[in-house]
Amino acid sequence: MDLLQKKESKGNAFTFIPTGENPPNGICPPEKKSPKICGTNYPLSIAFIVVNEFCERFSYYGMKAVLTLYFLYFLHWDENTSTSVYHAFSGLCYFTPVIGAYIADSWLGKYKTIIYLSIVYVIGHVIKSIGAIPTVGNQIGHVVLSMTGLSLIAFGTGGIKPCVAAFGGDQFEEEHAQERSTFFSVFYLSINAGSLISTFITPLLRGDVKCFGGDCYALAFGVPAILMVIALVVFIAGNSLYKKTPPQGNILLEVCKCISFAITNRIKNRSQEIPKREHWLDWATEKYSNQLITEVKMVTRVLFLFIPLPMFWALFDQQGSRWTLQATKMNTDFGGLVLQPDQMQFLNPLLILILIPVFDLGLYPLINLCKLNFTPIKKMATGMILAGLAFAAAAVVEVKIEENAMPDLVSKESHIQVLNLADSNIEVAILHHDLFRLSVEPFQDPDDYSKLILTDAQQSLPFRTLYQGSSFTFNHTVQEKLLYSLIVYKAEGNLTSYLIKDMGGKPSEGKAAIRFINTLAEDVNITLGKEEFVKSYSASDYIMVERGRYNNVKCQTEAEEYILHLGLLDFGASYTVVITRNNSANLPKAWKIEDIPANNVHMAWQIPQYLLISAGEVMFSITGLSFSYSQAPVSMKSVLQAGWLLTVAFGNVIVLIVAQAAPMKQWAEFVLFAALLFVVCVIFSIMGCFYHSINPEELIDKDSKQDTPSSKNMIGLVEKEPKL
């Protein structure tokens, strides 16, 4: 969720704002009067801007909601690579707004920048959608198309981010400040509405609609692409109604030049003979005005407080990566309503819409009534604590999930279970291995897999089987890092056995895996989605099926056709179904064994962590923007926005580094991030204790009365231009 634009409801403070609005060269063209909406003071042009923003946010968040699973299941990357690329893309989306603001303020103006970069945005979506069509190219082609599309999308969405809201604010006359404030509230609502609807719908298009024999990623990316086309068309449709201001120059660039000049000038004048100055930025007085330097001083004080903030965003943005991956290993059935794992992301925008009025109208007034000094720094620190607690909750959930996970497969180890399909108890022993102490009854559900220690990567082992007082020995070859089932059965009056490989891990995408073992003396055809042929006394390959109840599975022999009742095939489970005959009716029946247990942790256990991090976002993001803007003059608010966006970008970089450099158990990674944020929270709180709030306008008035440094203080300074 983008809370960065929340403070726009208080005024045009969020986006990049030039220091002045006067046209260049003193030319003052006549101001264009836009038609109003139903006799109000609201320009008709803002309707096009609001609809454009809704469609664009739907496009962005809808595409991003399914991105991690696309990497994992379509491109077949591992979880760490999928997470890294996801956060690399997210970080790029927050680096590019600086470029977009520079283009708009220094070259094209807001209107043309929005048009041109929206076209880039649309092209990126189209390329991304084509890359998700399985029949287009090979694996390398899909990766190239996907990365090209995502790069263009990042440049497009980031480039227009600082322009659209400011362009909407430009449509109002100065005397209609109240209407402008209301517009920003509606604008913010359109952002949340687009995010909420898209994060719920696009995962449905991905998972519930099937195309090309699997999940329909092409449709899940194609619909956001269509919405972005609509956004562009709607925006262009309002062309004749817009009030367009020419580029005025970029204040962010001026600030960077001022800081650079001050540092360079100070380095060049290191002589002890040159008098020191009160502040390091005072070394820019030879080139820049006192007012600009004073404003830059105020901005740098706030930017210094921004240094610890990326850690919060490192946790927050993992909702679309690590938390979504966690949801793939959970039970997603809500009483008949089955949610997709990536659908849980819709909770964040939903909770934001609920929590903002709860905090503004309930919690904060209650704290004020208690006369507690709940300063903005304390609110932001509380938001950090809540985000840390959210990851602590995620770690607890992950521990419960891993209790149900399959054993880790390591070198010179294998795991084995015994299936007794004979008509009497058996005892199985392996020479030099202490396994299977108890006898196994016919058709007894096996216990957990038993660990088998090998002397080499592959070893031939004798399996000694006791059956009705007789001993039988069967030799089977076992390989390391694999799971096996030893099938013992009677064929033509003799006891025999064979060893089959089992699935080594949980089925992907929350599906169920099933295979059939035919103990009949005849071949069978089983229809489960597609027809499966199973020879007599043999096992089929695994079939991946959607979670559901399968009570009408067709089983056909040469002579007859039967119906097998398999019951529920649950999320993430692996089953072996033994086809045998009912002793009384002599009809085929199915004996179902759960080799890998189903996902037994419900996805509802993610709700507390989403609630905590959403509450943390409200306290951290909105408060942080409001506080930082209050500490800088109007002309510098765009610089603070740039700094704020960069904290989000660097937060994603942190996740990328951790995912690639320090692979660990997922619960341990959650604990690591929570611990890091708690440490950063302490550091931020200490920094806040030494920060004293100021009134920017009063400070500017005070400094404007001071003289520039006298010529006495400038003796011996070295500059690139004339020497002083």
Summary, kept brief:
It contains 17 helices and 22 strands.
Structure description:
The chain has 724 residues and is an alpha+beta fold. The chain is elongated. Helix 2 (67-74) crosses helix 3 (79-108), helix 4 runs antiparallel to helix 5 (139-170) and helix 9 runs parallel beside helix 15 (637-661). The protein has 17 helices and 22 strands. It is 48% helix and 16% strand.
Detail the topology: elements first, then pairings.
Blueprint: H1 45-65, H2 67-74, H3 79-108, H4 110-131, H5 139-170, H6 177-207, E1 210-211, E2 214-215, H7 217-237, H8 251-268, H9 290-306, H10 310-316, H11 322-327, E3 333-334, E4 337-338, H12 347-369, H13 376-402, E5 413-420, E6 426-430, E7 450-453, E8 458-467, E9 470-479, E10 483-491, E11 494-502, E12 512-518, E13 524-528, E14 530-534, E15 538-539, E16 543-545, E17 548-550, E18 553-556, E19 561-564, E20 567-569, E21 574-581, E22 588-596, H14 607-630, H15 637-661, H16 666-689, H17 696-704
Parallel strand pairs: 5-10, 12-21
Antiparallel strand pairs: 1-2, 3-4, 5-7, 6-8, 8-9, 10-11, 12-15, 12-16, 13-14, 13-18, 17-20, 18-19, 21-22
Distance between the termini: 53 Å
Number of helices: 17
Mean pLDDT: 86
Low-confidence sequence ranges: 5-28, 707-724
The percent range for helix content is: 40-55%
Radius of gyration: 33 Å
Biggest sheet overview: 5 strands, mixed
The overall strand count is 22
Global morphology: elongated
What amount of the residues lies in strands? 15-25%
Structural class: alpha+beta
